[in-house]
């Protein structure tokens, strides 16, 4: 069984799923409507009250998760966590509350996971489709065909800000609706061409906001209940007639959710107008289902991150032979260093394969260019934390270690850095290294044992090992070289 936890701007949600034949069966769902996005203050920080609400919700989720024998759990945070300036300060508390690490994913990665969840539910593998997800802090638009994603984009317009900005004190007027819709359209207009009607046959709405609007149309018998522009316009006119959000009685919607539904209505009209959409079909699938499927694929050796690394490698014209050699050497050395867990193994090997991406920018300081490219590249399947770790590995592959000194307090991280540095060093000296040729240990000091004839066969090796000694000595870590007869 797998669990997906979605820390959204409107609600925190949880799914526990079991793979059954060729389908994923959801055996438990939970929702905490904490309205995190509304907890940002004027400086962009989450307030103590919002943080406490999040901690309480995650503590409840931890109790639920403990009831299941789970193979893997993934907790993802979306727009509000992406933009909260104090996220790094309170994140350890949130992770302690739920008992798992929390990944702040990019809008593009959020869109890919949403599409994966939708595509796994839909039966038609040849259908070209558009998927729209309107969240509390952002809106994702994804174009795909069957299981394949053709284009994904995340737009910084969501129900929380749209509701508070254009319907202050709950007033709904023609002018406020028109302004909210126009504002929404302005976010989508530059990105419209790739998503226009010639590219897809059906449009699906995967978010709770879109499903809530659909529920309002159906339960309140507005038009024929379908999500068409005409019916949405009719709903808008009905809201304007009522005039106040707190006086709006909509069957199927709890009063506390009404303001978010109104913000979502304005965004949905805006995106449909801008992209030329006449009807949207709702679907009970999205981010959480995508996360669960992604966990299952990782467990069955279909990790999307592998393809992302290959794509980046090709895009930046990495020498595949050198990359493969460094990855193999780094793996040999890291195993010898005996890390306490496998937490950094995959990230180290991916970084090794991409250690020379910076050469596409310049030979000088290529490790610095590479670190920047990997940290900020759009890499499918990777979290911000994973890319940041890989970036640090690439940055630390040569030169002084002061630039990653803080990270080296993590012993396993330091071992991964040492493994990569030595792998790059040995690759440049063209040594054909096997497990029996070298010994390396790292406890209170670094101890490296190599064959004596290496120094004779490769005159520059002594120079580079001396530089390595200097680099670690600057951090008060002894680097001891022993020559094996």
TrEMBL record:
CDD domains the UniProt entry points to: ASKHA_NBD_EcPPX-GppA-like (cd24053)
All copies of domain Ppx/GppA phosphatase C-terminal, residue ranges: 305-468
Keyword terms: Hydrolase
SUPFAM superfamilies assigned: Actin-like ATPase domain, HD-domain/PDEase-like
Domain Ppx/GppA phosphatase N-terminal: 20-297
Hydrolase among keywords: yes
One function term, GO molecular function aspect: pyrophosphatase activity
Coiled coil: none
Official protein name in the record: Ppx/GppA family phosphatase
